[in-house]
Design goal:
It is a single chain. With 265 residues, the protein is an all-alpha fold. The chain has two domains: 2-41 and 141-257, no CATH class; 48-134, no CATH class. Helices cover 75% and strands 0% of the residues. The protein is built from eleven helices and no strands. It is extended, with a radius of gyration of 26 Å. The chain starts with a helix and ends with a helix.
């Protein structure tokens, strides 16, 4: 375990030998898989603890918290409606309708929570929280490589691997995926994403740091220069962007031609 942690530390510091050692391992793919799973579970630990604590709260307390939050939102909406020029006599019905809708939903939730269950409520909620936590590695990232999840590592990695091969890369699938999984190491900083402002800043640092590690890993696994590793990383994004632009222009052109044809007839 100590040697494994040292490898991760050396990779985070961009030491080439750490990438080479992992690239040349026969179980490189499983090592990479393990790295992402461990980081994802660690990052999801605060959410798991929070959800676990909530599982022992009575439903009435949760609904009361939701009602307080809703009221705070409504207090902020009223001045906004006034700034938008909506008369005061028109604001009342809108706010009352929103409040009535919220109370209907709150009543429905309370009735659902009161239904008999196979397991006691704390046990069921605990299992739900645990299930959500262990599924963290299998979630989706909003943007490629922005989070330590398996979907991005595998899905986006296939396209980067293809781009690297087209540029003459000599890496293997196991070596490539094993080393590029190291991008997840800086995302340990996402553990603090629940901290206001600090969490967002550390998340940005983890993203940039992880991208740099991915470029390094791509270059080492395919045995070419870092510049080509960076190109392999961004090429799939460039291709998708160009195809999207062409699709938009194509649809616009077809619509324009159809419109002109309709006017001519």
């Amino acid at each position: 375990m100590g040697a494994w942690i040292r490898t991760l530390w050396d990779a985070a510091l961009f030491r080439t030998e750490a990438y080479e050692r992992l690239r040349d391992r026969r179980d490189a793919f499983m090592q990479g898989f393990f790295v992402i799973v461990v980081v994802a579970l660690l990052v999801g630990l605060p959410g798991f603890v929070t959800q676990l604590a909530r599982s022992f709260r009575p439903p009435e307390a949760e609904i009361a918290d939701a009602r307080s939050g809703f009221q705070a939102v409504m207090d902020g909406i009223a001045p906004f409606l006034g700034q938008m020029g909506l008369p005061a006599e028109a604001q009342g019905p809108i706010l009352e309708q929103a409040k009535a809708n919220f109370e209907s939903v709150a009543t429905m939730i309370a009735e659902i929570e009161a239904l008999p269950a196979v397991l006691p409520r704390p046990v069921g909620k605990t299992l739900t929280a645990f299930g959500a936590w262990v599924s963290q590695p299998f979630g989706a990232a909003g943007f490629p490589l922005s989070a330590a999840v398996l979907a991005t590592w595998l899905g986006y990695g296939i396209w980067v691997m293809l781009a690297a091969k087209l540029m003459g890369g000599r890496g293997t699938l196991t070596g490539f995926f094993g080393t590029t999984a190291l991008f997840a190491v800086p995302h340990v900083l996402d553990f603090f994403r629940w901290v206001p402002y600090v969490g967002a800043f550390l998340g940005f640092v983890a993203f940039i740091w992880g991208l740099a590690i991915y470029v390094k890993a791509t270059a080492v696994s395919h045995q070419f220069r870092p510049a080509l590793g960076f190109l392999a990383l961004v090429l799939p994004v460039i291709v998708v962007a160009l195809l999207s632009i062409l699709l938009i222009f194509g649809v616009g052109a077809v619509a324009l031609i159809a419109g002109l044809a309709g006017q001519g007839s």
